[in-house]
Amino acid sequence: MSISRINPEGLHVTPGYHHVTVVEAGRTAYLAGQCPLGPDGALVGAGNFYTQVDQVAANTLAALAAVGAGPEHVVRTVIYVVSGEQAVLSLVWDRFLGSPLAPAFTTASTLLGVARLGFTGQLIELDVTAALPG
């Protein structure tokens, strides 16, 4: 399996992600939206973007590991943030880039501000697609 990440000429420079990700062949995994819930199912870090990003990153790493993948196998991410403010969206992006999940965000990525997510107090959700190794 081969993964190529490309920034074509004529498109804007990105802050770390790539405009296009191509997977030559193989199996893929589509993770459910990863939420800031602990193992007990309770929301972690109500009102705290940093804590919720950290929990979402940990949950995503666990889900990837369950299928024999790591962040380097991620080919698409969509980050949902309950905020319309550029500063908050940037804070969330930077926190993910500082996490152990950071290699996942060098691929095709989208960052969206939204009005609400599924759980009361939830501020972050992450949608991930990975190309499985071997």
Automatic annotation (TrEMBL):
Keywords: Hydrolase. It comes from the Bacteria. Its EC number is 3.5.-.-. GO terms for molecular function: hydrolase activity. InterPro entries: RutC-like_sf (IPR035959), YjgF/YER057c/UK114 (IPR006175). Pfam families: Ribonuc_L-PSP. Belongs to the RutC family. This is RidA family protein. It comes from Phytohabitans kaempferiae.
